[in-house]
Each structure stands twice: as C-alpha cells, then as structure tokens.
C-alpha cells in the first residue's frame, strides 16, 4: 500500500498556519480542527511543523507564554516528508527511526496531504486482516 492509497481513503485535508502567528493562535487552530500537529507554510513553501509535543516541551516546560512566543521560534524546521508513491513500510520505518508522528506528503515541492502514525497503523492492520482472511479461506478449502 502507498501513501496515495492512504490519502484517498482518509482525504487530503491539510491544515496550516503562517510562521509569524503566536503559538497560542496555532493551538487554537489545532484544537478547532482536533489535530495533534499543524504544518507551517509560508508563500506555499513548507517551513516547519508544530506538534503538541513541541508545545509541551518548548513552552510549558520552559515556562514560556504561548501568547508571546511565535510559531517560528519553536516549530520543527527539519521536516521529514514522503511522496505519494512511497510505501507504508518506508513510512513506518522513517517514523520509528526519527521518532515522529506526522509526515507531510509532497509532490513537486507542494504539500498535497499529511499522514499520521495512526493512519499508517490502521492501514497495516487492514492489510493484515485481509491476509488473515485469505489464509483462512485457503486453509478451509
């Protein structure tokens, strides 16, 4: 299964903000959209990603104010991305090795979607269910 197949099933909604907004503004959007991370896109270019983990570690634990800190100050700017044609095993390996939970999907430098670790796990579970069903059918014959 590929990233494209996951996006076809879940949709290609991408929520993003500008890097010059406050962390508080970013958190409001994340809360409204019920998402755990948001992409930072300026002038149609992916500049970074901000996650709940970033907020906890870079604002709360450092006793900073989310209303006075800008997104560009705490966002992760070294963003790992995937392509529509990448397969699930590669995505899972990248997420595991880099300890990340979200992967923006780029085609020709443009963000076309985002997948999360739960999207990948759900897809793998479905593949395994299909495999088990086929094996059960084969054994039953």
From TrEMBL:
<dbReference type="InterPro" id="IPR046342">
    <property type="entry name" value="CBS_dom_sf"/>
</dbReference>
<keyword id="KW-0129">CBS domain</keyword>
<feature type="domain" description="CBS">
    <location>
        <begin position="10"/>
        <end position="66"/>
    </location>
</feature>
<protein>
    <submittedName>
        <fullName>CBS domain-containing protein</fullName>
    </submittedName>
</protein>
<dbReference type="InterPro" id="IPR044725">
    <property type="entry name" value="CBSX3_CBS_dom"/>
</dbReference>
<dbReference type="InterPro" id="IPR051257">
    <property type="entry name" value="Diverse_CBS-Domain"/>
</dbReference>
<dbReference type="Pfam" id="PF00571">
    <property type="entry name" value="CBS"/>
</dbReference>
<feature type="domain" description="CBS">
    <location>
        <begin position="75"/>
        <end position="131"/>
    </location>
</feature>
<dbReference type="InterPro" id="IPR000644">
    <property type="entry name" value="CBS_dom"/>
</dbReference>
């Amino acid at each position: 299964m590929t990233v494209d197949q996951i996006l076809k099933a879940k949709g290609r909604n991408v929520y993003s903000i500008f890097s010059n907004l406050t962390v508080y503004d970013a958190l409001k959007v994340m809360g409204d959209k019920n998402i755990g991370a948001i992409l930072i896109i300026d002038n149609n270019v992916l500049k970074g990603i901000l996650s709940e983990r970033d907020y906890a570690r870079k604002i709360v634990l450092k006793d900073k104010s989310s209303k006075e800190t800008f997104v560009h100050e705490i966002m992760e700017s070294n963003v790992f991305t995937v392509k529509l044609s990448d397969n699930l095993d590669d995505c899972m390996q990248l997420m595991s090795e880099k300890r990340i939970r979200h992967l923006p999907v780029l085609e020709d430098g443009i963000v076309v979607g985002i997948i999360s670790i739960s999207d990948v796990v759900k897809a793998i579970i479905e593949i395994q269910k299909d495999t088990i069903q086929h094996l059960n059918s084969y054994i039953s014959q």
